[in-house]
Amino acid sequence: MNVALPTLLLVEDDPNDVMLFRRAMDKSKMANPLQLAKDGEEAVAYLSGEGLYADRNTYPLPAIMLLDLKLPRKSGLEVLEWLRDQPGINRLPVVVMTSSKESTDVGRAYDLGANSYLVKPVSFETLLEMVKVLGLYWFILNEKPDISLRTME
């Protein structure tokens, strides 16, 4: 039986950060599918299954979302606040991965239900180690909640 690997949703507007993250995934041999949302509104549309994202075979619900805070159109904190109010998907694990070390950002992210808060590393080697640990913890060791849109009616 062929079991599909869980999807990772990366919400990131910086193309350089996206490229480095993809490279780190490749080097760490993380085979999970990666979906990308370039801003907060696109992340909400993806998670809602709206418009382009209505086809859940092409755009499956992610098992985890990596969320930048500083995003155009809707901030990462706004996305997180929206997500936690959505029945069925409100338990989606969210790892904030951002450049901000501000204690107000850290505190607000946790207040809104972030499961983890990581500061983007400066070096590629550190990013590579972070991606390896993320893959091990969130996709292998962690027990995932049941996430579906079935209760969103």
From TrEMBL:
Coiled coil spans: none
SUPFAM superfamilies, per the entry = CheY-like (SSF52172)
- Keyword Phosphoprotein annotated: yes
The Response regulatory domain is annotated at 7-135
Listed Gene3D superfamilies: 3.40.50.2300
Tell me the superkingdom of the source: Bacteria
Keyword check for Phosphoprotein, yes or no.
yes
Instruction: Point out residues bearing the modification 4-aspartylphosphate.
Output: D68
Q: What is this protein called?
A: Response regulator receiver domain-containing protein
